[in-house]
Structure prediction request, 155 residues.
Amino acid sequence: MSGTDTPHEGWRPAFRGWRARRPFWGGLLLTLGGTWILLTEKASLKVVIHIGMQGVVGYLLPVVMVLCGLLTLFSPSQRLFYSILGMLCSLGSWVTSNLGGFFVGLALGAVGSCMIFGWLPDQEPRVSRRKRRQAARVAAAQQAQGFGEGAGEPA
Prediction:
């Protein structure tokens, strides 16, 4: 072997483990919301600078949303700060960025921020329905097998 006793598992289990240790879907939605708002901006940068602070904020808030989403993915210990900042930027994009990217970017950012805020790092990973059913079948089979051997005897 190449110095390790464990075989190479592949990228999917490694990614699944990485994803389980952070608020992945919330960070992804917040990033997508900011990206959507940036893509719906139609004014060129020269026009935005000419308009002034209102135009610059229209580009600044979605960039901060994208940064908050990415920082949540790569630094989940600061997730509460990033979620609150992402929510404020999402709501602020209503006024500054084409009604929050025509409501789509606003909704993605708000839902993603709420998911980030509600994520609990100490929670056990969810078990799939298939695994729960299989465990229930195994437990039922063991219980049925146990009743045949010592039926009637006190425990």
User: Anything to note?
Assistant: The CA atoms of residues 49 and 55 lie 7 Å apart. The mean pLDDT is 85.
